[in-house]
Amino acid sequence: MNSQDIIIAPATPPGEGGVAIIRLSGKGCLDLALDYFRASGSQTSPNSHVFYHGFIFDDSGSDVDEIMFVYMASPRSFTAEDVVEIHCHGGHQTVSKILQIFISAGARLAQPGEFSYRAFLNGRLDLSQAEAIADLIHARSDKARTLALSQLEGRLSQSLYKLKEQLKDILALIEAWLDFPEEELPQENIIQIRQQVESSIVQLQEMVSSYNTGRFYTEGVSLLILGKPNVGKSSLMNSLLGEERAIVTEIEGTTRDFLEEGLVINGLPVRLIDSAGVRDTLDPIEKEGVNRTLGKIKSSDLILLLFDGSQGFSSEDKAALDRCVHTNFLVLLTKADLPQRCILPDLPFEPLAISTKTGQGLDLLRKSIHGALIEADIQQEDSIFITNQRHQQAAISTTISLRRFLDALDQSFSLEFLAVDIREALNSLGQITGETTNDDILESIFSRFCIGK
Amino acid sequence: MLTGYGKEYQVIVVGAGHAGCEAALAAARIGCSTLLLTMGLDVVAMMSCNPAIGGSAKGHLVHEIDALGGEMGLNIDATMIQFRRLNTRKGPAVRASRAQADRMAYSARMKRILEAESALDLKQGAVVSIDTDESGVRGVYTKEGLYFSAKNIVLTTGTFMRGLIHVGLNNYPGGRAGEPASEGLSDCLRDLGFKVGRLKTGTPARLSQRSIDFSRLQKQEGDSQIRGFSFLAQSLDLEQVPCFIANTNEKTHEIIRQNLHRSPLYAGVIEGVGPRYCPSIEDKVVRFPERTSHQTFLEPEGRESSEVYPSGMSTSLPPDVQLAFYRSMEGLEQVEIMRPGYAIEYDFVEPMQLKKSLETKAISGLYHAGQINGTSGYEEAAAQGLIAGINAARRSQEKPPLVLGRDQAYIGVMIDDLTTQTTREPYRMFTSRSEFRLLLREDNADQRLTPLGRSVGLVDDERWRRYTEKQKWFSDGVEALEGQRLSSKQKDILAGLGLKEMKQGASLRDILRRPEISIDQLVPHVDALTGADDEVLEQLEIAIKYEGYIRRQQQLVERMEGLEGQALPADINYPEISGLSQEVKERLAEVKPETLGQASRIQGVTPAAIAVLTVYLKRWKKQ
Fold first, then answer.
1. What's the CATH number for A7-125?
2. CA-CA distance, B66 to B597, in Å (whole number)?
């Protein structure tokens, strides 16, 4: 990633929203942009941080789109370099045309995260800020924005910081026992330390399990629509999307490949995946599709399992149900507008009857999807999620070290081994909260205990 | 002008304290003509403060000095009057040796050793300035008007440079009570461009033994088994002298509180920074008001001496207040003070200006060791003296310096810390300063360092023979424990070990890893271990029992080696590196780290900054 280039990329997610933002960054990007911008007013050289209305035109001189244009002079921009943003109409066509114009003129399509990387290189961001910003960029819904912001403001850091202080104090006490054997120190009370470590593990686990939820808001969830051919998968997909996209026919097995569409369900970014059916088949192409569907069953966050309400529960339906047993899934009875003949086996939850013709059950479905993914107790705005995989990993390895500590305690390992485990836990936590130096430990010892012989 | 009585030396060591003695002996033993210059030939290797060597982490340092072929371990073994091994239950790596020394005997023996070293001249003289040219150091001038020339000079000035002694609100220049300060040298260093700072330390009064009522104090005896410090020590047999424990009380504290205004620390007279781990008694009383009592160990200063050292009672209060607070303590009601306690301020040279070899970055051939580097403690000083002496000699012989890693020795940890972190207080070694504590044990100091000592020329044939012999015992022992199995049918042996429930056979190594089994229980069943020394058995037991933890630390070491292996050129212009915050730039420019590993340990240098540095280094190398 050469940091001298002018880089360009859409700053908004593809495919949704009425407005898209295209961002250019790097020395000389203003001149480059002005070559293809015609302001509607008389202003020729734009002021920094002011919006201008106008048009983007291509090499042949014909207008491509009506836009708003804003220039942010270095260093008062996201990357601390000269930045131009073009606010154009949303939609794949327009965005890619504008990108193409500037790329042919010498800009380079930015690597993922490269704007943040530049901000980081130019001293605008530290690593954890850069990561949170990266999440912010990829955030695909309002909720995700709130999450990324609260992380930046340090709410996650705050609760982790408390944890770090607690572990630091434990380590300081153990180290004091080790390094100052001739001082008058508090009695060695391992039981109390054990309790503190156990409670730290509980707190960490809560954070670790919040990751999925956090990740759902930033990365979106994958939702697989599954069912035998012609059960109404494509119709459901279209109903949820609100337009006709997948090919819907009456011939079984028409949807051979996966169709993926993005949409937002109750604030949650969703990738809706329409699958081929799962019936046994001799057609090699369709067979391949079926195999891939089986793979998707494992990797999806949620499965919508469709049974045809107007027909009997077939052996094929039974097979599909069996495959879903260990996954997160909802059962839908389709074609609720037709006479119902399907008799389901006992399920741990109520099936949902829907009709894509009448719209019956679709609102309830949206709520159910949201509910199945996001647990009720962490839906409040003020709960803290881990949204970043690196943070998730750090919290997990902290937990591992702390469990090791408890194991070592059970095996009556002596103090210095216990210190190793706590130190490792602090190091792991330090990947998020910043490191705990030896001097921090000593400071804690000297401020709490009267040392000095 | 006289020139060193007509002799040119390869190495000159200035100062004959614990650092200076090791430096001079090392250089001379490596084969360099060496001069040791001291202000007072009667006060060689003096213990200015407590009459003890070792303790947590410090005992480790002494073992390391000994393993490399230094003198401190042998000297304390020959002159100790009490020995204890601390922390025996807290884990193998924190077990630490500690001895009470006979202060005068310690000094006298060290002087004899110095005098017996053929390549070493021992002379009295107070160095006032250093002679340098563009190639580095050339020699030293003394107050007496002498000039001695050498291309390698080790400065070990202790607390003597511009030493200022405070007794109550009185103060006077001095390097140690009763001895003059060294004037001029630190000005010379300042003129040479070094950043010179000021630190403070203190020492308690010395009490008269016959004025103490020991019958009312708790006695503390030495261990029954005396292992000693040196690898060469056979188990020592000696008549030990006990210490006694006395306690302060509310009345003592009241006297101290009422007289705080007469303490130069509290009156704001002292500008130097004192150590947090060694607060004066007035500090303890002020900072921990909830404590109604503080303990003090009354340590004898020697067999022939009737002076007693009360540990943890350092003070700069005036002598009349000292007498009053001592006399408020049980057993000390009639006590007489022989020497009052005092605080001392002295100049040190910021050790970030040193390379890891302890050579100054600015002036070739100039080495600093001991308290001049802002450290505290005899063991810390001796360890640096040894390294500085070795490297001064090696430079003279045009060999690369000996640099110890953080994973090799506490000495390596200390020198890395000194050259990387800003000194804010006198630096003392703690085991918690090492991230590889389980690897840096007293018991394996020989394994870690004796081969290095051999390669630099400090380990003689006899020590080397005994070392290799011990290693043979060790590796044979490991092999035997791995190879030999106990089957479930050997019911007698299993029952003897308390392992009746064992259903399947296991190697003795696996059996030793059980928490309840000790190596002593296995010795009768392993021929290869019959007749092995306790030291070998201890080492075997630790290596096998704690293998899992030790391996984890070794993995950490390997991870670190990646960064450690990337040298940072000395001429990097940090301010021009974009992507580093201003603070990081300043820190890096100040420390000028030698490797990326060292850079990563500088406070405030984040992993992100290291990423940027890595990128920069790559670009820099390409150009």
1. 3.30.1360.120
2. 28
